[in-house]
Amino acid sequence: MTAAPPELRPLGQRELRRAFGAFPTGVTALAALGDDGTPVGLAASSFTSVSLDPPLVSVCVAHTSTTWPLLRDRARLGVSVLGAHQAEACRRLAARGGNRFAGLDWTATTDGAVLIDGASARFDCSVERLVRAGDHDIVLLRVHELDADHAIAPLVFHASRFHRLATPDNPTETPT
Ligand SMILES: Cc1cc2nc3c(=O)[nH]c(=O)nc-3n(C[C@H](O)[C@H](O)[C@H](O)COP(=O)(O)O)c2cc1C
Questions:
Q1: Which fold does the domain 24-155 belong to in CATH?
Q2: Tens-digit pLDDT profile for residues 94-125
Q3: Ligand 1 — pocket residues by CB below 6 A?
Q4: Residue 100, exposed/middle/buried by CB under 10 A (0-12, 13-18, 19+)?
Q5: Fewer C-beta within 10 Å: the chain N or C terminus?
Q6: pLDDT tens digits, residue range 34-75?
Q7: Residue 55, preceding bond cis, omega within 30 degrees?
Q8: CA 126 to centroid of ligand 1, rounded, Å
Q9: Could you tell me the distance, in angstroms and rounded to a whole number, from the CA of residue 139 to the centre of ligand 1?
């Protein structure tokens, strides 16, 4: 233990974003078919595994999201853990304008969950519960079906940048 107190910063939006960004995450695509049969979705790095029994995961969605109201009442939502090769797709899935699914290969389940082809893991989910939490909703999702391929390296998001994991085959971590 040191005698001097830690030099912590006062709380502010910028400092909070910066500190939250120190925690590395993967990135998921949260997506479903809209009423017109076209895919609707957004990128979300707030994905967390929650429970094995029952099988639950969560994402946090900002109240400012214009896409979430189109997703929240769908029977099923797809959650795809994006691969390291999908950084550009991730940028598009978060973009304000344009077709977010342009150039992206995806598959819809019969119940309308949209899953991204070539993702590291894919979950077919339904909304279990919503919890209001500050300026976000915590969305608790029940997993119905899934697949995962550990051979597909995940996309990593840290400090506002995309990265890929260093592996014995690829020892240098490289921003994507
Ligand atoms: C890497 C990355 C991670 C993101 N994670 C989240 C998230 O966890 N929750 C969220 O509400 N928005 C997140 N976003 C923002 C959304 O993808 C999207 O840009 C935002 O919802 C605005 O679009 P919308 O109005 O169509 O919803 C993230 C964006 C990026 C690029």
A1: Pnp Oxidase; Chain A (2.30.110)
A2: 999 889 999 899 999 999 999 999 999 999 99
A3: 27, 42-46, 59-62, 65-68, 90, 94, 157
A4: buried
A5: N
A6: 999 999 999 999 999 999 999 999 999 999 999 999 999 999
A7: no
A8: 19
A9: 14
